[in-house]
């Protein structure tokens, strides 16, 4: 029972974290058609910035400053990099962000070293929130849940209830019309890119200390975020949300299942010592999102909530 | 639009132009290949040349997809790796003398790599090529990640962490090559490189090769004239995967080992960089890129730890300022030098080169200083007897002044160019 409760909690938290990353990516993608390959690199930057700021001041200041800094970096990248390659088409933009991801990783390696940095959970949150069935749940994870839900509400409010959100939504589908109405579309693009990157940075700030903050964290996270965007349906925030939670739950439940193929497919006469029979569900957990992607592409190519077929 | 009345005879190249553009480069390439062993190369040179040969074939195969087909793949090393893995398994069957394999010469292993790569690309491509562009790129990444991480689960096929190794000196000999010494492998490499280059060039001249370019530019029109773009993409993807598998087979024979790392995103990214830096709009572009980047990766890593950073910078700069790659730069300079307005062109070119060299100097000082500071061993960047520490004022002068001056020069040339056009 406690396995289920914990997998559920951790799955939702991980899913919300994924959504924090993929919401920015989806917004940027549906507005500009740019798939930001470097999106996970901004997540990494968030964690590293927070580590630096936390060293100088405190975690709470880092929580606010680091995402803003990441957002500014993102805005600069859009203004002086992406806008220049925009004329050469979407593939050129994708290649630019691919190169950028590469550069950010190498620069991080030079500044912070190749090994993980000691980015810790703040002392204030380093206790057990509650204990159920004899196992305790860390308070920091509850804090992550709180931040993620606030972000979700904030983003929803910004997009649906404010004038700026209305303009952004209009620019998603009809950028030319919005331009004709006198809005500065390039500025909107830059802002959205900045906000998307800041969200990724925020995810980095709150996740970097619970996972590992090292130069490989972007490469680990990047492909999963892409899977979320495709599975959710390209350009759909609701879809990205569903896919994030789904993948978070699948991965966390899979980790908790120790059964191997021989036990599950016993009716096929699979031997537990054979290579396929020996594979456990928990060892499949890292592959699950990609498996889901392939199955999705074969059986429902438009994704969970996508409007058009891929 | 006045040229619409041009007769068809004038549109095609003359036989002289055909010879110069198609046959001559291949002949020169073959001549270079024949000349290399005469210089009695060392082991290091052989190792480098063999790696170049593998990368040339791989990069060209990749460019069938990116340059000609307009499909950006982040996971093409999968087909390279699967082809190579299959060849290594066959190599081991040859060594065991198992069944029909006992009589299969190692020399022809790349053919099997070709088939294995093509088959796996045909299967994966059947669902991944449904869409082009960004969607395809994302799917290629996901599939590559799935296969690369799945490979670690099947030890009998992929050998786990230590991979699978073999011995190429078994089976019957062909062309009198025992496949043992490096000089024998050289001829093996030369043979397969030339064959693949000719085959891949020939592919661009086939109706399918032409259709793949048409599908890249306008899939809708391709559909109007009665072809199925998805099918074209799938066929091109299969062909590209097959040649990638061939390169994998060459690599299997050369190194006699394959690890699951070879399927991962890192080699996939490297082949993308090779092809793009070389220039994807030209057939020779990926060849140039493969030669240059292989050379850089083996030589520059001796000079500087930060060579990956330089590589990344070069890639981003090429994406931003020279999307036609090195081949584009070379042909552009050639056109400029033979063009009508030679004087001004050379003048501008020299200023541009000066600007770039200045910026490069500043950049190198910055990067080399930082990397020594980051290592924390107290090492200091000391070019030409200078002592460039982080606290030295001269260091910062050497960083800021050249970058500023170089940027100013480049800016001026660009403004002049724009004014000349306007």
UniProtKB/TrEMBL annotation, chain A:
GO terms for biological process: amino acid transport. It holds the Pfam family BPD_transp_2. One of its GO terms (cellular component) is plasma membrane. GO terms for molecular function: transmembrane transporter activity. It is found in: Cell membrane. InterPro entries: ABC_transp_permease, BCAA_transport_permease. The chain crosses the membrane at residues 12-35, 47-73, 85-104, 139-159, 187-211, 217-234, 241-267, 279-299. Keywords: Amino-acid transport, Cell membrane, Membrane, Transmembrane, Transmembrane helix, Transport. It is a multi-pass membrane protein. Belongs to the binding-protein-dependent transport system permease family. LivHM subfamily. PANTHER family: ABC TRANSPORTER ATP-BINDING PROTEIN (PTHR11795:SF442), BRANCHED-CHAIN AMINO ACID TRANSPORT SYSTEM PERMEASE PROTEIN LIVH (PTHR11795). This is Branched-chain amino acid ABC transporter permease. It comes from Primorskyibacter flagellatus.
UniProtKB/TrEMBL annotation, chain B:
It is a multi-pass membrane protein. GO terms for molecular function: branched-chain amino acid transmembrane transporter activity. One of its GO terms (cellular component) is plasma membrane. InterPro entries: ABC_transp_permease, LivM-like. Keywords: Cell membrane, Membrane, Transmembrane, Transmembrane helix. The chain crosses the membrane at residues 23-39, 45-65, 77-95, 101-124, 136-154, 185-203, 234-253, 273-295, 307-334, 346-367, 388-410. It is found in: Cell membrane. The keyword Membrane applies. Coiled coil: none annotated. Pfam families: BPD_transp_2. This is Amino acid/amide ABC transporter membrane protein 2, HAAT family. It comes from Primorskyibacter flagellatus.
